[in-house]
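Sample A.
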Amino acid sequence: MIPPIEQQSLDEIKAFQEQQLTKTLYYVNEKSPFYKKLFAENNIDISTIKTIEDLQQLPLTTKEDLQRFNDDFRCVPVTDIIDFATTSGTLGEPVTFGLTDNDLERLAYNEAISFDCAGIKQGDIVQLMTTIDRRFMAGLAYFLGLRKMKVGVIRVGAGIPELQWDSILKYKPTYLITVPSFLLKMIEYAEAHHIDYNQSGIKGAICIGESLRNQDLTMNTLSKKITDKWNIDLYSTYASTEMSTAFTECNHFQGGHHHPELIIVEVLDENNKPVSNGESGELTFTTLGIEAMPLVRFKTGDIVTLHTDTCACGRNTLRIGPIIGRKQQMIKYKGTTLYPPAMVDVLNDFENIENHIIEISTNDLGTDEIVIKIAVKEQSDDFLQEIKDHFRAKLRVTPKIEFTTIEVLNPIVFHPMSRKPKHFFDLR
């Protein structure tokens, strides 16, 4: 079910996107109070914006704009909104996104072609191990996409390994949708209760919220820990409420595939200029085909690298590599630039660590301070020194590391009001 546009030449994909861009700009200029005002204030004549390169003439939209002028982005009467979703608020106050009936259909199509990319087909059964409530768009999107594919769904929700295994053994799903670190808890529970997970019928897991790959697209420590025990395929997927679009890996595991019908992407440097091929920068997008709240040149805050070489799956679309970090979460520590994912990768190298949190604060000198609190199976000074040496070897610096208990960390990491585990706390 590869959409034809994804197998066309790069020139054909670009020409198609430029046609859709024109439609989007005329639509927001007419319907969106925010963009109508923004274009007028900046003397933008949208008729002159004809190519992807011309996008650079337009102002950028930020998360702060969405927070301050949330309702002004809406292009339809509130009575046309069928679903109200909110962002998770990772980098600030949550923002409300309304979706019309057509937007929900687009969302379903996006997930259908994304899951197809990961190998899910009609006849499969998928266990949904994420929340579908709490105004969470992703859980609803997964359900709508699978329904569109005529794929069976088991809506178990997050957590509770016992309930997850009960459903797996009873309904025989072939794929899971989950946070990858939770799969380690599933393995741990299965081993304690003599469940042969490699004979459970699970072929693969579509993984959200945590990275599975290093920047060279090889498996990172977390994915190795899972697959060394459980013989399943792990597929990365990257998405956000704002874009209503997912970038999901195919079975060649070379980054999340772009869907050109749904979104235009740019990667920008510190000066908001396009980066050179293969360089990292801030992912910025323009949505296509959204009715209620389209966005033009929206800065995600996520630092990524694009991959443009041809994929063996037959798609000619660009691919997004693992998120290097969030721009607002960048840490300057003892002259070294760090992002939380790099520190998590170091911690994942140790079997002895059961859970962790990373806290960033500003010290008396006005510089960044890092404290990592870890719960371990066995405490010792030698183990603490081993972690510090590993940080120094991998990242050139050693943050402050403190022992605590699993009883202290679990309620913080797995907060009942949070949609996903939270390991990073920015107190600056």
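Sample B, a different protein:
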Amino acid sequence: MKNIKIYLFFFLCAPLYAENHETILIKNATVMTAMELGILENTDLLISDGLITEVGQNLEHNAAIIVDASNHFITPGLIAPHSMIGIQEIELEAETRDDSSDYFSSGFSIIDAFNPSSALIPHNRTGGITSAIVTPSSGNHIFSGMASAFKLDGKLTEESIGQDVAMTMSFGGNEGSRASQMLLIKDSITKARNYHKSRSQIMRGGYFEFGNYTPRDLEAILRVINREIPLIIRVDRARDMLRMIRFSNENEIEIIFAGAKEAWRIADMIAIQSIPVILDPMDNIPSSFDSIAARMDNAAILYNAGVKLLITSQDTHNSYLSRQGAGNAVAYGLPEHEALKALTINVASVFGLSESIGSIEVGKDADLLIWDGHPLEVSSFTTKIYIDGKNINTITRSQRLRDRYLKKLGLD
């Protein structure tokens, strides 16, 4: 009888937990598609079942909620291509950090550490970030671990939209001798290949010298070797990038550069190799001897050479500042349309998510932002945020605290 009552409870409560997708018709917007269609003036969008179902002018739907977006811009939700949103709260408070491991290296996956209730999520979401590629920090190993992709809708039950989509590592200053780093990387590849050859022997109880690696670490390296996932390399110095290009060619692996302050110096080589680059156009100060040649027009030079750009912010707490960085890149020569793509569809395509997010087109998830001005202007703000067609509250914890104290002071 007790079990029957439990089943009856969940049956009656099921509608409370079911997805309740509304049909929404957004009218008269300036739609920035992040696709070859470019910008569509006075255009309507119909959202049904969490998807974009129609894009055009003078659309009608009798049962839809009408949203007038006259004099407003609509863009796809922005995607943070390299952040620790959801796995780090306060950098100097160890109990709030889930971004590194002392035991695992390449096999360290942050998939089970992501916190959808992180205070940083609404803060960055209000600034336009609706999805993020969440990466482990550098840690104490040559390889940091694997990144996963998440939507920032705050759902407690939300699964990742891309598990272990890339491996990450750092190369350059502050990581020990470059010669030692290269030897460690090469030894890691050799160790993984030997492990692959010895799998059947190991399964039968045979001995294998794992050294500082676990089976999970070596399995992850094999995914890179087999070109199942790319390797994100945090690197700034041009000569170091050339080393990494040679290494990737020798081992036939796919790489992505992150940081890349001196990438403009070898832009043609990066383009020929079809290597995507994750960069922050605001991070243009030579903060170390690895980035003495940093310059403001890095993004424009790379784009003109044919490099696929992904724009980020180096500050996880303020990942939404990638939008400001994109605006600065436009001021220094990057075409406006390409700046928006670097915040959206380029990120989605590089990490295998472009079938569902990253652009405004029929069939894609309705992850959309309505802006009160041009989205690349710092004076513009989101007025509505949709993730999977749901209107997401734009209030953040800091705003609630502000209102609370204004009320106490009688200034509300």
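Observation for Sample B: Confidence is low (pLDDT under 50) at residues 1-19.
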